[in-house]
Amino acid sequence: MNQILERIAKNAAALGTKHPDVNTMDNDLHYGRGHGGSWVDSFWVGMLYLAYAYSGDSTYLTYADGYQPFYRLRIKDTDAVCEAHGFMKLDHDTGFLFTLSQVARFKLTGDREARDMALRAADILAARFHEKGSFIRAWDTWKWDTNPAFIREKKGKTIIDSLMNLPLLMWAFGETNDSRYGDIAVRHADTVLRYMVRADGSTCHTFNFDPDTGEPIGEKTGQGYADDSCWSRGQSWAVYGFALLYAYTGEKRYQDAFLRVADYFWDHLTTVKVPVWDFAVLTDDTAPYKPWDSSAGCIAACGMLEMAAHLGTDGARYRARAAAILDHTTRLCATLGIAGAEPILLHGCGGPAYRREDPSRIKPGICDTPLLFGDYFYTEALMRMEKPDMVRFW
Ligand code: GLY
Predict the structure, then answer these.
(1) Contact (Cβ atoms closer than 8 angstroms) between residue 312 and residue 318
(2) 278 a catalytic residue
(3) In this structure, which of 117, 165, 177, 195 has its CB flanked by the most CB atoms within 10 Å?
(4) For domain 2-386, is the CATH number 1.50.10.10?
């Protein structure tokens, strides 16, 4: 932990108020200095809040303060602001962005402006709810979208990652007592449980509904190997997402869902407890290579630690699994011995390495890379191993 805290402090001093960017990283493992504007912005500031929560050292909080003007701008979310600053419009990932920045800040400092921004973000997320289909819409039309079929498809699409955006709604419900937030979160989670968690405990990445009628259409991958495969990071979002839903609601169906998806995740690790990018490639001889996604292991470890606290003596099994994942991740993926490196973990996989229908088309630069969320969840998991009662931002 001391090495991680030192690394965070060093990176904070080097970044100022810039955003770390893995896409423009140099060969010596220095992040590019970005302006922010995508779904990953809050993982860095979230690490500053984690470091402050864990250590009590207000230097980390002072660095985090420097990002507040950015979030004041980001929450405006008008076309003009997004255009002027190169921001993506806020979509279902609003939960990631404002939980780790403003909810975390409010919980740690009581800052009312942070609370207001987080509630505004919850409204933006709730407004994405598709009433007929009972799901939160994932993606919007992006300016580079040219295919009319895909533009229409996105109007009826939800994705497994969305489970990690629901804590923002559950927090808003607790904060305001407005049941609309909680109802939307639970209705969406039940839709995911019904259509996206398969009988064997695996999950699909995205699911399409008819945008007009809300009728279910079927599974589709975005970042995985195939529509019927199991993208390991998606599975890990489900592990942590269902654990958190159980923590908020106490509903047994979410605990059962956690047990199914977490056991599937664990059963698809090999002797190496760092997950491959998509579990389907493990048994597919035509798969040309089988890159890891270290971030998926850390996200799942956080979910296992969360649920371990609710399972009494049975929790020990999940705590031991989380410990094994973190141990292997530390040995095989951490950069802590590499002088000058800024990211903490190597061997993340950002998106689809290749597809089953065209395995020779391996996308360059997608795999074997650090990922900001890998660093965030690794840090969160290690801190929670050591201090299980530490404040939870989600
Ligand atoms: N939420 C997007 C991803 O996991 O890559």
Answers:
(1) no
(2) no
(3) 165
(4) yes
